[in-house]
Amino acid sequence: MKQIWLIFAQAVTIVAAALFAVSVFQPQWLGRGGAAAVVRVAQEAVNPAGTGAGAGNTLSYATAAQRALPAVVSIVVALSPEAVRERTPNPLLEDPFLRRFFEGEGDVLLPEDDSEADSGFGSGVMVSEDGYVLTNNHVIENGEGIEVGFSDGRTFPARLVGSDPESDLAVLKIDSNEALPAITFAGNESLRIGDVVLAIGNPFGVGQTVTMGIVSALGRSELGLSTFENYIQTDAAINPGNSGGALVDGSGNLVGINTAIFSRSGGSLGIGFAIPVSLVRHVMEEIIAHGTVTRGWIGVEIQELTPELAESFRVQDSGAKTLIAGVLTEGPAYKAGVEPGDILLAIDDQPIASPKDMQTRVAAIRPGDSAKFVFLRDGRELTKNIEIARRPLPKDMRR
User: Fold this and answer.
1) Is 119 part of the annotated catalytic residue set?
2) Does domain 61-293 fall into CATH 2.40.50.140?
3) Is 168 a catalytic residue?
């Protein structure tokens, strides 16, 4: 009996030792294994739509970013001596203000000793495989040399094809022996408030960066940034250096060109503005075809018809908002008999909601064509057929 007990004890000891050795060196033999039994590793998943589930059930916009990233470039501009003097450091305003990303000390590459810099940076978007690049006019204005850099390290000298200060857009051209990555444009009316968007650019010159937000508002105007305003507002983080970069939708398609932010400090506070793709495309095609943008013009000064002005002109509540404050001698409106004090009601039977609306509508009419304008004068409606002229360039208007 004593011998049997001794054999049993030895067997239990051997089995226990064997189990210990297996649990340490080959735990999978026992169907369990340390961290493997606690940590569940997700299997790689493919997201065919480019949004939503990227890895397992994780929300990801990696596919959208990967589609757009190769076409977003950095832009370095050698500034003229005059521009350098204008861009010396200046104290930021204490009150909220609208800031273009290429103005002030936040956008100039200032050396550590705060002396004057002779270069600046921004972003751009490749719009065609043969080398056309879109950016903001304020990124490249007063530049004496422009260099475009890709995320893979390639750089190219660029020439200015043309610019449009009134929309703050410009088109550059680079030459390459191979096809270049080009972004895909979204449809003109595809964007909605609440849609997810990605802002891609070169903030503060740190390198290509992607941030995410939503469309906060559409059709923002009266911001004082340019003559023709119809901005997308977004809370995607955009900062100095993002100017001219891409705002893309959840599929990686271009919906706008990042242009400005509302900020107290020059950094992002969650209110950014982008030029919508509808305006971008029109301006780009005009510049590529003609080197400039042709717009209609009738030669009047306009202002909003406030309740006080409406009362002084004895205007009943007609919904009109646009007062003709001045008429340029020998201009199209002058020749048609328009007078200061006339109140614009409609153009080609379409009601005019505001001075900006009137300006945009007239600009869209081809020079040489005639349009029917309906005014209110002394309580009576009158119709004037006005032949549209070509809108002078901004530099011509200042003369």
Assistant:
1) no
2) no
3) yes
